[in-house]
Amino acid sequence: MKKTNSHVILTCVKRYKLFVLILTLWVSTMHYCYSQQVTEPQESIKTKYQLELERQHKILIKQGQEIENLKRLIKNQLYKTDQQQNTHPNKNTSNKKIKKTTVINKPVGKAPPKKPTRIDVSAIPKLSTNVSGVLTKSGTLIIEPRIGYSYTDSNRVFLDAYSFLPALVVGLIDLREIKRHTIIGSIGTRYGLTDRWEVDLKFSYIARNDNQRSRPISIGVSENSIFTASGNDIGDIELSTRYQLNSGADGGAIYVFNLVATIPTGTSPFDVEYVESTPGAIFPTELPTGSGYYSIQPSLTAIYATDPGVLFGNLSYGYNLDTDEDVGQVDPGDSVGFSFGLGLSLNERTSMSLSYSHKHVLKSSINNVKIDGSELDIGQLIIGYAFNYSKQTNINLSLNIGVTDDAPDIRLNFRAPMVF
Fold first, then answer.
1. In this predicted structure, what is the pLDDT of residue 391?
2. Measured between alpha carbons, how far is residue 124 from residues 57, 177, 261, 360 in Å?
3. Are 320 and 293 in contact (CB under 8 A)?
């Protein structure tokens, strides 16, 4: 048997078509594979971008909320600062610039201690007859020259004889018109032992002139007697001390305790000689310049600062010691006084004050016998002005207007304390 080999013999054209078909299948397969490889990375990148955008959006929203919280904190802090400035009017913060600071939610460290508040009451002319109410810093010496003038014009019926300034206490019934001019020049020194304690010493010189027209009615004299008398001599020495009881740092009132002692160095009314020009008309040949007795006057002053003024008040009690004279043992009578007012700051250098002062003098007695008509009520309306001339010198002027019969009609006081 004869074997034969069979082969498929293709023509050239068929071979070419087969090659083209194979090439076409390969190209189409490669494109599909490539598109599959490219599509998968593009979709993963797009997803990552979306997630990142959402994360950044959340971060921006959170930061916006934090910014709003910071704005509210800053606004609250500024409001609290304004409230503190309004509750402390004596602090001048108009020229201060607000610095930008980082707001901290929690406090850091301890708050500084409050400093004692020092109130300048130089506008107050006098809280009582002897107390000025202005304390001196520790180690500071103040020399204060003063000059005052008073005028009294009175028509009264009283008992004429030995006089206790400004009353006459014993004698005949007398109808008398008096015009009295008084000039008082003094110099005082104040020294601050501490910031709360000061001492004061004052020397004075008094010049007086009285024009009196009298008609005694108890003996039936029909003619007037006119007499002029004067007196020029040193006055009584005043020694005083003041102590500030509290600091006033809590914004409340400041209390000051005052103690004044008077030493009778002037001409005593008991040493003055009297003459009788007509029957029943007795006149002094010389006017006294002192009280003639020792006195001690404790008092309490209260000062309360408001915006833009200062309220003040004073309560005092004057204890006058007995004295032995030719007429017997004389008790001049104690006194009770009070005063109150308001000091107002007009600007940094000028201030004014308005106050009222009243003193009631009890009856005098001789050998424990009360003298009728010896009680006195001295009420005065006081208008004060103060000017800060320099850091070392202040100028103070006050006008006292008498509102009772026993008070001087007008009293004008000028003071110029100088710091050394």
1. 84
2. 68, 34, 22, 22
3. yes
Looking at the structure, give the CATH architecture of the domain made up of residues 141-419.
Beta Barrel (2.40)
Amino acid at 354: L
List of the chain residues with pLDDT < 70:
1-17, 26-43, 85-134, 155-176, 214-225, 277-282
* Pick from 59, 133, 48, 52: nearest CA to 382: 133
Tell me the per-residue pLDDT of 311-340, one tens digit each, with 9 for 90 and over. Answer: 999 999 999 999 988 888 999 999 999 999
**CA 252, CA 261: separation in Å to the nearest integer?**
30
Could you tell me the two tokens for 113? 């201690």
Q: What is the pTM of this model?
A: 0.64
Chain-centroid distance of CA 52 in Å reads 66
CA–CA separation, 237 vs 321, rounded Å?
Answer: 16
Helix (H, G, I), strand (E, B) or coil at 51: helix
Q: Concatenate the DSSP letters of all residues of 206-265 into one string.
A: EEEEEEEEEEETTTT--S-EEEEEEEEEE--EEEEEEEE----TTSS-EEEEEEEEEE--
Contact 143, 189 (CB under 8 A): yes
Name 379's bridge partners: 358
d(CA 153, CA 209): 12
Q: What's the mean per-residue pLDDT of the chain?
A: 77
What is the distance, to the nearest Å, from the Cα of residue 188 to the centroid of all Cα atoms in its chain? 23
234, 289 Cβ separation under 8 angstroms: yes
